[in-house]
Every structure is written in structure tokens, then in C-alpha cells.
């Protein structure tokens, strides 16, 4: 399966450290490390654009060409580091592997088909888990696993244990109850209505306050709540002392 795996050309990196790695990136290289199989780790510089293009396509298994020394050796992508913005690959770690060796790795799940449930107005497709972890032989490691969702209806979901693995002896390591795809009905938030209700709301009435104001108005102590003086009426004056 991986006789056609892409070949990554690399050269040994003699000087280590972030400063020299930055220089490699400035020269169009991708710093990396190759380890495993009882051999000492080797710091290398990959051809940057070629390596990044393959990694971004989702490929995980590669053949190594290290100046002819280990030409054809198979290696598995283990870890990728990004810059502080999270959108540029700045370092990659690879493990030497044998094609018959069983490894654990994550594989992207690609949804295929037009779900029945999406034909209903307001239905939306959710894809909360877009990759699953599996264990398999390196030779059987797929670049992607496809999931047919054409029969998925509204309020239904497909969990990880329902994903059909391409090879019989592959083992699912992801939680089998993890939801891979589901169709739900979009809920509209009635923001405008809530705002209107809030605008019309008034301060709570204090019990007995209305009666107290009315009594005070009757005794000439204060106007009743909301009362206005009659047109042309003069302001009340205190009675003259006798």
C-alpha cells in the first residue's frame, strides 16, 4: 500500500537549537526529528514546501531519502508543531517504522453523501468529531476514512463504533460513543421579542406605596402619583398666621 508513499528528502542538521531552526525555516526548510527502532534520534531539515504540502493533505506515512544513507526507509508522522498563530507548520517529528508493525494513530473522517434529514427546513449537519484514533499495521494505514451519511435523518446521529474500518484487523481506540455526525434542528433565538419585553418592563410596585401617596395628596402633603395641576391653577400658599 505504501510503496507509493511520498518520498521526503532531508539533510542532517548539525547545529541544534531554536536559532538554527529559525534559520532553516528562513531558507525554506522544515526542521524535524526522526527517531525509533533502537536508533539515535536524528535532527534533519526537510524540503519545506514539499513536506508541508504532503502533511496538509493528511498523509502520514512517508519514505525517507536522507542523502542516500537510508533511502526508502519508512517513517510515520507522529507530531506537528505550529507557530503561535496556529496556521503555519514549523516542526515535524517522525518515527521509523516497519510496514508490518502495528501503530496507533489518528485518521481524518470524511463525510460522504447527501443526508435525508438535510432536506427538512431548518435542519443542520453537525460534525463534532472529525478524526478517530485507530490501531493497525503501517501497511494498512489509510490516509482518510469515509463515512456515508446519506441515510442520516433529523435528530439521528452516527457514533464512532458505527464507522466501517477499511481493514478487518483494524482496532478502534476512540470512545465508541463519540458522535461523528448528527442532524439537528436549528433553534432560533427570539432576541427581538426578549428585547421588546424588557423595554416594556417597569420597576416593581412597592406594596402600599400607591395608597400612601393618595392619602398624602388628600391631606395636602404631596400630589398623588402621576397627578398634574389643573391649567391656570395657582400654586398653594401656606395659610397666614392669625
Could you give a quick summary of the protein structure above?
This protein has 242 residues and is an alpha+beta fold. The chain is built from four helices and 13 strands. It has two domains: 1-97, Ribosomal Protein L25, Chain P (Beta Barrel); 99-201, Ribosomal protein L25, C-terminal domain (RNA Polymerase Alpha Subunit, Chain A, domain 2).
Any descriptors?
single chain; 242 residues; alpha+beta; Ribosomal Protein L25, Chain P; RNA Polymerase Alpha Subunit, Chain A, domain 2; six-stranded mixed β-barrel; four-stranded mixed β-sheet; 4 helices; 16% helix; 36% strand; globular; disordered C terminus
- CATH homologous superfamily caption of the largest domain: Ribosomal protein L25, C-terminal domain
Mean pLDDT over the full residue set: 81
Query: Measured on Cα atoms, how large is the radius of gyration?
Result: 36 Å
Number of strands: 13
- Please outline the major beta sheet: 6 strands, mixed, barrel
Strand content: 35-45%
CATH C-level class of the largest domain is: Mainly Beta
